[in-house]
TrEMBL record:
This is Transcriptional attenuator, LytR family. Gene3D superfamilies: LCP protein. It comes from the Bacteria. Residues 69-221 form the Cell envelope-related transcriptional attenuator domain. It comes from Micromonospora halophytica. InterPro entries: LytR/CpsA/Psr_CW_biosynth, LytR_CpsA_psr. Pfam families: LytR_cpsA_psr. Belongs to the LytR/CpsA/Psr (LCP) family.
Length: 319
């Protein structure tokens, strides 16, 4: 969804562009993200004019895997002004309470990694878990398929990614990449977005790198002016539409139109506060910093992120 937004906003979409997006509406797959959620179980909307999107990344964690995983969890907040956004990554190993466990475990609430919610109850249970964890009402859900996202990168002819520390590719041939800007095709970019074990801070590096890939795609879409090339625009939008699913109530056209003022530089990248990595039994987990998280998500809930960012400038991830 962010890449659709980038394509239409960087360069000024005309009537033909908007009509084309409307024509893609029926081509975007839908997911029943809110099935079974009871109103009394959900947070109230503290700021009706703001929007909060839950963005999930589905992936086969490595070539040859047969299990699809939801390893990427991002909460995207758009304030009432609709001229900027904050993208908050939530570590998949965050230790929290899942409202319902697997049927084999009795279906009762259970402490687990936040990602377990998807395995136990699909997108609806993950939405409920995120809402319980953050206290933020989720308005819409976007599920991104990493393999499909690779096609978007290829349509752009690759992207320039800011590498923050030495990276040794695992699934493609190539030298160790030193810190700096590197041009990546889809295979290398997705390799970079997947890796965590070779970095000292593990999943935190992976989240930063995923954010860097998103930022790179948005910058490249703007730099190349895809709207000026009808063939490239068609390929780009069709690849993007094929890489995402959205909730049943979300209008792609209305959403893109409503966020038309946002440019790539207007998106701030953040990570949900934590106290670090630890173990529970035989599991490696990430413990949330509950007081700091409460302040961050209260700012999201009340549409006060400008105030929070002024008080916490070091929390911004550079991309």
């Amino acid at each position: 969804m962010l890449t659709i937004l980038a394509a239409l906003l960087t360069g000024g979409a005309g009537l033909a562009g908007w009509l084309y997006v409307r024509s893609l509406e029926n081509g975007v797959d839908r997911v029943d993200a809110f099935q079974g959620l009871q109103e009394e179980q959900r947070p109230v909307r503290a700021a009706d004019s703001a929007l909060n999107f839950l963005v999930l990344g589905k992936d086969l964690s490595a070539p040859g895997d047969s299990v699809s995983r939801t390893d990427t969890i991002m909460l995207v907040h758009v304030p009432h002004s609709r001229d900027r956004a904050q993208l908050i990554s939530i570590p998949r190993d965050t230790w929290t309470t899942i409202p319902r466990s697997s049927p084999e475990d009795g279906g009762r609430p259970a402490k687990a990694k936040i990602n377990a919610a998807y395995a136990w109850g699909g997108t609806p249970l993950l939405v409920r878990t995120i809402e319980q964890f953050t206290g933020v009402r989720v308005d819409h859900v976007v599920v991104v398929d990493f393999a499909g996202f690779g096609k978007v990168i290829d349509v752009l002819g690759g992207v320039d990614v800011v590498v923050d520390k030495p990276f040794r590719p695992q699934f493609v041939r190539g030298p160790v990449l030193q810190p700096g800007v590197h041009h990546m095709d889809s295979a290398l970019a997705l390799d970079y977005a997947r890796q965590r074990k070779q970095f000292a801070d593990g999943d935190f590096s992976r989240m930063r790198h995923q954010q860097a890939i998103v930022a790179a795609v948005m910058r490249e879409a703007g730099r190349k002016g895809v709207l000026t090339n009808p063939g490239q625009l068609d390929d780009f939008l069709r690849a993007t539409a094929g890489a995402v699913q959205v909730d049943q109530g979300m209008s792609v056209f209305d959403t893109v139109w409503g966020l038309r003022q946002i440019r790539p530089d207007d998106i701030t990248m953040l990570t949900s506060p934590t106290t670090g990595v630890g173990t529970v039994g035989d599991q490696s987990v990430i413990f949330p910093d509950l007081p700091a998280s409460a302040k961050l998500f209260a700012a999201v809930r009340n549409d006060k992120m400008d105030d929070w960012l002024r008080e916490n400038p070091a929390a911004v991830n550079g991309n």
